[in-house]
Amino acid sequence: MAGHAHLLGSYTPGDSPVHRAPLWLKFTGVVLASALVLTVQQLPVTAVVLLGVISTCLLAGLKLTTALRPVLTMAPVLLVLGAYQWWLHDPVVAAVVVLNILSCVLAARLIPLTTPGQRLLDGMVSAAKPFRLLGADPERFGLTLSLMIRSIPYLLGSVSDVRDAARARGLERSPRALLVPVVINAVAYAKHTGEALAARGLGEKTGSGPEPDQAVHPGKPGGQN
Hints:
This protein is mainly α and 225 residues long. The protein is 69% helix and 0% strand.
């Protein structure tokens, strides 16, 4: 089901200024652009930011169809939201709300599309290092992100494949035919992932139980020879 990884957006190789920009600069740009449109809430500002984000996509050599793929998935929700805001307020407010969401999604999507996955994870781990003082484990945080990035496309692919299989059998309206295989696939995937982590010594440390050299042997009370 790896073919479904594109649903989240994967790295697009390139040598543009956007690709070469440091990760902290990309994150800063996304945060500032999002904060600006969500704070000001004015159509001219939103239009300028959206134009800037689209220009950055083009500068990075990205196809707009690639950048806009999640927006197409969100289109029904955006249409309903826009219609509701139009009815509740006016067309300008509706346009601001919808375009603000579009601007934030496109800006955030630029990061994974122009940053290699390992570099992105390394950056997140580095950003989490100051939280060591609070007891956080940056390496475990990075591992969690890595597992999430790998798992979500698989689970999305599982849902899509199960839905196609149910449709082929004429069971597309059966909740059981859709839900049960997805749950089984998810549990199996989690089990295999846990086994792989344990095999590499990355499992949870419970801190309980005797040390290996103090283990009690069956039939030998207290472990004495």
